[in-house]
Amino acid sequence: MSRLSGSWTWVLALLSTIALPGGAFAFRSGPPPGRNGSTASLGASCIGCHSAGVGESVEILGVPTTYEANTTYNLTVRIADAAQAGAGFQLSVEDDAGTHVGTLVITDATNTQPNGGWVNHTFTGVDNSVTNWSGLGNSAEYNVDWVSPASNVGAVTFWAAGNAINNDSSLNGDHVYLTNVSATFSLPVPAASTWGLVMLTLLMIVGASVLLLRRQRTARISA
């Protein structure tokens, strides 16, 4: 490497340090993929750069107990922490092997963005969470849709990390919360075949006829 290129490398590194105090703003734009503690993340999470939170929460609202094939589910990741000032998140949906399943669909491009097989906040999303924090009861909510697979892939798990920040532009003092919720596949109710409907109709006719004959017989005996 030439002395000139080496100097430019040093200058760029210095500018990055000045522009991103404590590395905080890099993550304000969104964490690297695979930081929500999921199987695909190999257990890695935002706790690696921030501290683990205690006493408050991250929730994934809207997760079905059982999912049907090719169905859209509206999800909300909610992060709450009375001691903090805003929050970011990361979400994924995986099978037991850690393969991303279904499709996470961005419904709010201002506040959320795709990140490989994950979805997380945007820079603007975190700013908006700070603005709306107190109005939402010291919490932030991020919305995204999940379209389930076209066929049965077995149990799936929704993984989320929520980082409640103190908004001091550093990695210090933030609280990271992790959660996961599982859902199993819902087998569809078999549709009645044409012959099944015919048989059901015949059984109903026969049953009604037998009931009518019994009533007529009872009436004759009573007379």
Termini separation: 116 Å
Overall radius of gyration: 28 Å
Major sheet characteristics: 7 strands, mixed
Low-confidence stretches: 1-24
CATH architecture title of the largest domain: Sandwich
**Element pattern in H and E:** HHEEEEEEEEHEEEH
- CATH C-level class of the largest domain: Mainly Beta
Content of β-strand: 25-35%
CATH superfamily of the largest domain: Reeler domain
Model description:
The strands form two sheets. Strands 1, 3, 5, 7, 8, 10 and 11 form a seven-stranded mixed β-sheet that branches. The chain has a four-stranded antiparallel β-sheet with strand order 2-4-9-6. The model is unreliable at 1-24 (pLDDT under 50). It is built from four helices and eleven strands. The chain has helices at residues 3-19, 24-28, 123-132, 194-222, and strands at 51-52, 57-61, 66-67, 72-80, 86-95, 103-105, 112-115, 118-121, 139-147, 156-165, 175-185. The protein is of the alpha+beta class and 223 residues long. The longest helix is centred in the C-terminal third of the chain and has 29 residues, at 194-222. It folds into two domains: 3-185, Reeler domain (Immunoglobulin-like, Sandwich), CATH 2.60.40.4060; 193-223. The radius of gyration is 28 Å and the shape is elongated.
